[in-house]
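Retry 2 of 3 after timeout on previous attempt. Resubmitting structure tokens to design endpoint.
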């Protein structure tokens, strides 16, 4: 008999008595508990807030906001595992609510699950592209994922102050190129020993580091300048030694004194310290750049060669020349690689002859150029190595973004290169043989390889789902069957296997839907017909039994469709009417096909039972 006839027959029994196994949400009590939780949260009494939000959830476990609020409390208490559980449940209950992704992503970030956190924030930004919290969360998670200095959970930032600073000779050297005073400081061994001693405390005793810095800088202010320079701060406007003890604060001359000093640099242009040869070389470089943009490559090469002839100790000229070779085609790439590696090897020699000619920033640009060439040559590992080396010279966002894009390109290339339909079929056949021998783990391994070889083969996902079902990995089996049906919506066997999985998960209403979809494609399919009959019998047995299956109810309450039905005001009125006036409820149901369908689903889900 059909499911429709079965449910029309059994719903007639509703007037004789129905046992609801699901208590309808008490929204008033839930709202009261939520209000108390919000008040406690505002007062920063997070433990008390957790209690109230937990009570709200007990009154209405279908409200996503309660899980979101409790997740925020757990995060404030630094209980990030619990915060993640609630954030995940919030997203599950309301997948189109951006704030839920903020809660989940934050917990993943503090658990140092940076890959998951990035994915979560990206999913949220698909719903709300301009959400500031999601944007900031994605930035922090991405920086932590790619190990950007100062990023990540262990990077500090909560305590403030100067604690936790580390010695960064690269940053100091870069700053010295812009400020000759720093270059002089670096020649003072006694001064640098003081700085290094203070910086070493950053790893073990940040608080002591700050105290030590304050003490030492009183006797030697240069220490503070060196530390500030290593943190990327501009010290060019700091007062000299004779200005440290200027007029007392509050005098009339105090605020007026800096004004002319701030204006003077604006009026005076920085002195041009280039030699005549360097000025002429820069003119040739500018002409070369213009010709490069016009794709007049031979002429551009001539200009760069003239620039190099005038000033051979300048990395940018050679770097630009190699950019031209890259554009001229693959036959010039090795020539460019050779030239770029040569200047990297001579960087210190070049810098000695022309200070700044091989600065950290310029070396980073050369390394980036090498990475770009190797990327074109599809040598991804070497390209990644050069990008990482570039970041050690000059850690900037452009290079970090280029590295991320390269890693994605590498992953895609590896997947595409691995695809081989013939080898995939071999793995599928081996998997089938192992499945017949009841070696389900080994069979799954073969199907795994088959999917990697041919991710567009619907049968492969269906077969792996069968192995996963035998291994009792039902959620994973469902994912494979969903993927299978995306690739081939007419694949009836996938529907029959989906029905089996839902049956074992006690999601009988979903099992019925799966079998019905399969029969809509092939009305004579025996697997779907037999599976559907088995479900109908199980629903009848469960409905008449005096026991409540908590697992079945738990699965049902996690189903958005069941939640939507239970939140429907018409359904709420009908459920109350069943208790108060069964005859009127029966009449309403008989005259309303939509209501009949909803009641059938609730019965199949085990939410209401006859008896």
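Retry 2 succeeded. Sequence:
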């Amino acid at each position: 008999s059909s499911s429709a006839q079965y449910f029309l027959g059994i719903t007639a029994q509703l007037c004789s008595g129905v046992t609801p196994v699901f208590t309808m949400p008490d929204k008033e009590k839930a709202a009261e508990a939520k209000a108390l939780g919000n008040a406690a949260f505002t007062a920063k009494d997070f433990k008390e807030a957790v209690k109230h939000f937990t009570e709200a959830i007990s009154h209405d476990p279908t409200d996503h906001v309660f899980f979101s609020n409790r997740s925020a409390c757990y995060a404030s208490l630094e209980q990030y595992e619990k915060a993640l559980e609630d954030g995940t449940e919030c997203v599950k209950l309301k997948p189109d609510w951006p704030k839920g992704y903020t809660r989940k992503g934050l917990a993943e970030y503090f658990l140092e699950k940076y890959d998951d956190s990035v994915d979560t924030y990206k999913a949220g930004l698909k719903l709300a592209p301009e959400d500031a919290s999601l944007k900031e969360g994605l930035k922090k998670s991405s920086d932590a994922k790619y190990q950007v200095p100062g990023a990540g959970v262990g990077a500090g930032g909560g305590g403030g102050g100067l604690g936790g600073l580390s010695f960064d000779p690269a940053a100091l050297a870069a700053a010295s190129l812009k400020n000759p005073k720093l270059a002089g400081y670096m020649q003072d061994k006694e001064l640098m020993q003081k700085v290094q001693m203070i910086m070493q405390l950053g790893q073990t005793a940040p608080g002591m580091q700050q105290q030590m810095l304050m003490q030492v800088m009183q006797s030697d202010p240069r220490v503070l300048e060196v530390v500030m320079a290593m943190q990327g701060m501009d010290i060019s406007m700091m007062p000299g030694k004779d200005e440290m003890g200027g007029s007392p604060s509050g005098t009339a001359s105090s605020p007026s004194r800096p004004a002319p000093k701030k204006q003077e640099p604006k009026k005076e242009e920085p002195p041009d310290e280039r030699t005549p040869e360097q000025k002429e070389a820069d003119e040739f470089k500018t002409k070369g750049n213009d010709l490069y943009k016009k794709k007049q490559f031979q002429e551009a090469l001539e200009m760069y060669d003239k620039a190099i002839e005038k000033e051979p100790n300048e990395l940018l000229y050679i770097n630009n020349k190699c950019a031209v070779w890259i554009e001229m085609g693959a036959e010039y790439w090795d020539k460019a690689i050779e030239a770029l590696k040569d200047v990297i090897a001579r960087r210190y020699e070049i810098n000695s002859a022309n200070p700044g000619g091989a600065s950290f920033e310029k070396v980073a640009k050369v390394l980036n150029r090498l990475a770009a060439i190797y990327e074109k040559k599809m040598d991804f590992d070497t390209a990644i190595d050069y990008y990482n080396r570039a970041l050690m010279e000059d850690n900037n966002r452009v290079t970090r973004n280029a590295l991320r894009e390269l890693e994605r390109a590498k992953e895609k290339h590896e997947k595409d290169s691995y695809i081989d339909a013939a080898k995939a079929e071999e793995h599928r056949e081996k998997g089938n043989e192992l499945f017949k021998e009841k070696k389900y783990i080994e069979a799954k391994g073969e199907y795994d390889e088959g999917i990697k070889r041919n991710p567009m083969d619907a049968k492969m996902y269906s077969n792996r789902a069968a192995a996963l079902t035998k291994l009792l990995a039902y959620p994973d089996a469902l994912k494979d069957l969903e993927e299978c049906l995306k690739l081939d919506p007419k694949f009836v066997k996938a529907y029959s296997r989906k029905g089996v999985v839902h049956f074992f998960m006690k999601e009988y209403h979903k099992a019925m839907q799966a079998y019905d979809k399969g029969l809509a494609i092939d009305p004579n399919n025996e697997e779907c017909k037999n599976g559907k009959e088995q479900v109908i019998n199980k629903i009848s047995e469960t409905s008449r039994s005096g026991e409540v299956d908590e697992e079945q109810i738990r699965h049902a309450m996690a189903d958005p469709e069941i939640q939507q039905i239970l939140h429907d005001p018409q359904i709420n009125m009908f459920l109350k009417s069943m208790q108060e006036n069964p005859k009127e409820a029966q009449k309403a149901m008989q005259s309303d096909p939509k209501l009949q369908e909803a009641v059938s689903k609730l019965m199949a889900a085990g939410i209401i039972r006859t008896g």
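Attempt log closed. The chain is about 75% helix and 0% strand.
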